[in-house]
Design brief:
β1, α1 and β2 form a beta-alpha-beta unit. The protein has 260 residues and is an alpha/beta fold. Helices cover 42% and strands 20% of the residues. It has a seven-stranded mixed β-sheet with strand order 3-2-1-4-9-6-12, with helices on both faces. A four-stranded mixed β-sheet has the order 5-13-7-8.
């Protein structure tokens, strides 16, 4: 089996990080954790599982922080996992099979997501996605995006079919609303920095409607019941907020230019 580094970034995750660490204990050759100055017991919990822990005083954004963790990895392959995620036994076995293969043609793999809402796993809608998390270390890098970062790596991308990358991202409805707002605003800022245009509030409304239709109808979120409907509505709202936020930034820039 090719060697495997697991990289994790975290902050104030004492209530959720232990399942993440338990799932990779004894499975990875090394566990690397970069913490953003947690004020709770997160770092002490992490030290029960690995001595490769770094604490940063700043927060440069998700992409740059994950790159810091990747820079410290030393194994042939890397599994990037968030502190509110864990891998189940089925996907562990498939990762072992992939990394032991004599005919490995892919340089990275997508892992099926198993999103949990109120203790129940979602199977459709947004949960039908499979993020790219397993990849060769050589030549890989994270984008510098503050949020919704991605891996930059040449080569073919495969997909694991058995098991799940479990994801327990919602602590409460209040937490979900706050996270939704924060991610939307960070995305507005990211789009503004890249010079992307909003094309006005009416289009923000249309994007929101399309997001709901995509998640609830096309990706069959309706089959997840009331939870599926809630997820579709939350992402629809987030879609509107990020483009409305981009429009607002555009108007602010115009006003500032007129004052000069």
């Amino acid at each position: 089996m090719r060697s495997l580094s697991v990289i994790i970034i975290c902050k104030n995750e004492e209530d959720r990080i232990r399942p993440c660490l338990e799932s990779v204990k004894g499975f990875a050759d090394e566990i690397i954790v970069v913490d953003s100055s947690s004020s709770d017991n997160t770092v002490n919990i992490v030290k029960e599982y690995t001595d490769k822990v770094w604490v940063t005083e700043d927060w440069p954004g998700y992409g740059p922080q994950k790159q810091r963790a990747l820079d410290k990895a030393s194994c042939e392959w890397v599994l990037s996992i968030d502190s509110d995620e864990w891998i189940d036994d089925e996907i562990k076995q498939e990762i072992r099979t992939v990394l032991s293969s004599d005919k490995l043609t892919n340089t990275s793999y997508r892992l099926p997501w198993g999103n949990l809402i109120l203790g129940k796993q979602m199977k459709f809608g947004r949960s039908a996605r499979a993020p790219r998390r397993l990849f060769q270390r050589d030549g890989a890098a994270f984008t510098k995006h503050l949020v919704h970062e991605s891996i930059v790596l040449k080569g073919k991308i495969g997909r694991l079919e058995n098991g799940y990358l479990m994801h327990n991202s919602i602590k409460s409805y209040e937490h979900w609303i706050t996270k939704n707002r924060q991610y939307s605003w960070l995305t507005s800022q990211k789009y503004s920095a890249k010079g992307k245009r909003s094309y006005g509030i009416p289009l923000a409304v249309l994007r929101s409607i399309w997001t709901f239709f995509l998640i609830y109808i096309i990706r069959l979120g309706c089959l997840d019941g009331s939870r599926g409907l809630l997820v579709a509505m939350m992402f629809s709202q987030a879609s509107f907020n990020k483009y409305a936020g981009l429009w607002y930034l555009e108007q602010e820039a115009k006003l500032n230019n007129e004052k000069k």
